[in-house]
Amino acid sequence: MVMNSQQRVLTALRGQQPDRVPFCELVIDRSLARQLMSWDEVDKPTSMETTPYTVEEAKAVASFLKIDNISYILRAPIYCQKGIGKDGRVFYGEGLIKTEADLAMLDLPNPYNDALYVEAEEFIRQKGDFSAWFITRVGISPTILGMGTTNFSFALYDNLSLIEEIFDRYCEWACVVAERACQLGFEVFATTDDVAFKTNTFFSPEVFRELVMPRFERVAEIVTIPWVIHSDGNMHPFMDDLLTLDISGFHPNEKGAMDIRAMKRDYGDRLCLLGNVDLVTLGMGTPEEVEAEVRALIRDIGPGGGYILSSGNSLAGYLRPENVLAMSAAVQKYGRYPLDL
Questions:
Q1: How far apart are CA 216 and CA 139, in angstroms?
Q2: pLDDT band for position 50 (50/70/90)?
C-alpha cells in the first residue's frame, strides 16, 4: 500500500512499518533552502523562535527534498544576548536573568490570545498531505539559557526557587500552547529542550527527576497527539524517565553521543527513533559517504518500522547542498519496505 506523508509518519511513530522509511526534519535553515531552491533574496537572521517560512515555502522545500513533514515553530522567547552567525543563524550568548529582580523582563506572548495562532491555523489549512509538526519548548532549555549556564548551575544549590519560578512560567505557557496545537490539527507535537552535551547530561538524573520531569508530566497530560522529544547530546541517563511520559519518538540520537543501534535494541519496541545522519558527513563529506551512511542506518534501524530518518540535528546552512540531496535520494533508493539491503 502506498502511503502519503501523513500516513507514513504516523505509522512509524506508532512503532509500525510504513511503505517507506519516512524522511523528516525539525528545522531547515532558510540559508540552505535558498541555495537549494535558488531563491533570490538577501541574507537575513533565521529566527530560532518562529517559523522562517510561509506554508507555501515550507511545502516547496519539503517537496523538493522529498521530506515527509513540514514544521511550524512557535517557541517562547529566550532572554539572553544573541549573536548572528554566518548565513543569519542566531546563536545564544550570556543569560540576562540573574536574580529575582530580573524576572520583570520575562514577558511571554499571551498564549490565550487567538492572534498568536493565526499563522498556525493557516499552516494547517494549507498543509496538504504533509505531516504537520508543531515545534515548541517545555522550558528547561530557555531557563538554562536565560539564566546562563554558570548562574543556573550555582542556583541549583543556592537558589532553586528562582529556577522553578522561571521554568514554571515557561511550562505554563507551553501547556496552553500544546493544548491549542492539538486542537488546531497538527499531527506531531515536538519539543526542543537541550539538556545534554556530547559526553553526559547537564545535570544528574536526580535533578532531572525532581526539577524537569514534573514539568514534562504537566505537558504530557495535555498532549493528545504523538509527542517527539528532541535533545542533543548523551541522553542515555534520562531515557527510562522520558519513556514514562508515553512519548512517541526521540530525536536526534546524536552520533558520537548516543549509539542509535543500541537504542534500537533497547528501546525499539517502545519508541520511534529519529536520526541521525552525521552533520560532519553532511557538511564535509562526499555524496557517496552520505549515501553509505543513510544506507547503513536504514539497514540497521529500519527493520520492523519505528524509524524516521533525519539529520543528526537539523539541516543547517553550512551543510553542502549536494550532500543534502544525496541524503534525500538515498532514502528513496534504500528505504522502501520490505527492506532489501
A1: 9
A2: confident
Q: What is the pTM of this model?
A: 0.96
Give the three-state DSSP class for 249.
strand
Q: Which cell goes with 233?
A: 547530546
Query: In degrees rounded to 5, what are phi and psi of residue 300?
Result: -95, -35
Given a contact cutoff of 8 angstroms between Cβ atoms, the answer to whether 232 and 291 are in contact is no
DSSP designation for 148: -
22 pLDDT more than 70: yes
Cell for 199?
559526553
For residue 298, give the nearest of 276, 279, 315 by alpha carbon: 276
Measure Cα distances from 219 to 23, 81, 136, 169 in Å: 26, 28, 12, 13
What domains are there in the chain, each with its CATH number? 39-269 (3.20.20.210)
- Using the 8-state DSSP alphabet, how is residue 242 labeled? H
For residue 338, whether the previous peptide bond is cis, meaning omega lies within 30 degrees of 0, is: yes
**Are the C-beta atoms of residues 18 and 310 closer than 8 Å to each other?**
no
What are the residues whose beta carbons fall under 8 Å from the beta carbon of 133, sequence distance 6 or more?
A: 24, 26, 69, 70, 71, 72, 186, 187, 188, 189, 190, 228
Taking Cα atoms as reference points, which of 68, 66, 51 lies closest to residue 5? 68
Do 275 and 260 meet the contact criterion of CB atoms below 8 Å apart? yes
Place of cell 539491503: 341
Rounded Cα distance between 188 and 8, Å, is 12
In tens, the pLDDT along 69-91 reads 999 999 999 999 988 877 777 88
Q: What is the CA radius of gyration of the chain?
A: 19
Quickly tell me which residue has 543528526 as its cell. 312
Distance of CA 247 to the CA centre of its chain: 13
Residue 267 one-letter amino acid: Y
Give the model's confidence band at 42: pLDDT under 50 very low, under 70 low, under 90 confident, else very high: low
Question: Predicted confidence band at 274 (pLDDT cuts at 50, 70, 90)?
Answer: very high
* DSSP bridge partners of 84: 90
Closest CA to 18 of 327, 305, 287: 305
Count of C-beta atoms within a 10 Å radius of residue 112? 9
Question: CA quadruple 49, 50, 53, 58: dihedral positive or negative?
Answer: positive
